Amino acid sequence: MSDQPARWTEATVYPDMWADPDNDPRDSDGPSPDGELPTLLDFLSGYRMTLRMKCEGLDAEQLARRSVPPSTMSLLGLVRHLAEVELDWRGWIEGEAKPKLYGKKDADFEGAVADQAVVDAAYADLEREQAATDAALAAHPDLGERLKNGSSVRELMVHRIEEYARHCGHADLLRECVDGRVGQ
């Protein structure tokens, strides 16, 4: 008998997908956005939604499970980490370092414990920090503009997309280890 969960997906049209195309909230029926900034924002939105989808339907223990020992990474840790990173990016925009949300280095992952209050707080932190960073960036629509830390708005946007995309890859593997669910 194996401790490994059986692989599965909810998709019925394409068995390697997370959701059927008609039910995937990331897909729109319209054309792709026009322009560089709307395209970057669309990709960021898609990766943010993907992270949430990879966490859906799991309880606090499953979200906090460190599925790939000895790593401290968990789905809940990723949510907390991305809240922390959004706060850091806002510091880049505003030109001042922000105090860490969770304290010392790596506390975002180490503090990701199987407690529903911790889960609820992590999601609230992520939503708040995403909205605050989005609002701070909205004041800088010129992608070539240099922010207070010397980075361009474009560089920050691409970095945000890269960070979410990389962690969505981690989330794919973590989710599969938790309950066997696979897909794009």
Please explain how this structure is put together:
The protein has 184 residues and is mainly alpha-helical. It has a domain at 55-179: Four Helix Bundle (Hemerythrin (Met), subunit A) (Up-down Bundle), CATH 1.20.120. It has helices at 36-55, 60-64, 75-94, 107-110, 116-138, 153-179. The chain is flat, with a radius of gyration of 17 Å. This is Mini-circle protein. InterPro entries: DinB/YfiT-like, MST-like. It holds the Pfam family MST.
Radius of gyration: 17 Å
Helix percent reads: 40-55%
Give start-end ranges of low-pLDDT stretches: none
Estimated share of beta-strand residues: under 5%
The biggest beta sheet is recorded as: none
Can you tell me the CATH architecture of the domain at 55-179? Up-down Bundle
Global outline:
flat
Pfam family, one: MST
Protein name: Mini-circle protein
Organism: Streptomyces alboflavus
Region (Disordered): 1-37
What's the structural blueprint in terms of helices and strands?
Elements: H1 36-55, H2 60-64, H3 75-94, H4 107-110, H5 116-138, H6 153-179
Helix pairs in contact: 1-6, 3-5, 3-6
Summarize the structure in short.
This protein is mostly helical. The protein is built from 6 helices and no strands.
Main features:
184 residues; mainly alpha; Four Helix Bundle (Hemerythrin (Met), subunit A); 0% strand
